[in-house]
Amino acid sequence: MFCLFQVALWLLRPDEKERPLPNAVLTVAPRLASLLGTLGPGASRGCGSVAMSSGGGASASAARSRACAEAAIVAGMWHELEGQLMHAGLGKAFRSELGYY
Fold it and tell me: pLDDT digits over 44-101, tens only?
C-alpha cells in the first residue's frame, strides 16, 4: 500500500518529484501530521518504508511500532487520495493499472 499512494500522487501531479512520506502527509492529509513523530528520524530520509530502517540499533518492537504508525498514516492518506482520484476522473485508470477492474 505504501507504493500505491506514490502512484496515486504521480497520477494526480505527474510533473512533481516523488515525495518522502512526511512531505506527502503534509500535502495530502495534514490532519495526520501529529502521527509523523512516531515514525522516528528515518522518516525524512527519502522515499521508502520507515519501518525497514534500523534507526541506529532500534529494537524489533520499535520497528513494529513504526510499521503500525506508517500503516495508519498511509491508510489515512489513501482515503484522501482515493477521493481526489475519483474527482479527477482517474479512479478507473488507477484501478486498471493495479489489475482491479
Answer: 555 556 655 555 555 666 778 888 888 899 889 988 998 999 999 988 777 765 555 4
Work out how many domains the chain is built from and give that number. 1
Total-model pTM = 0.71
- Long-range pairs of 34-42 with CB within 8 A, sequence gap ≥ 24: 35/69, 35/72, 35/73, 36/73, 38/65, 38/66, 38/69, 39/66, 39/69, 39/70, 39/73, 40/66, 42/66
Residue 66: domain span = 2-97
Could you tell me the three cell numbers for 88? 479527477
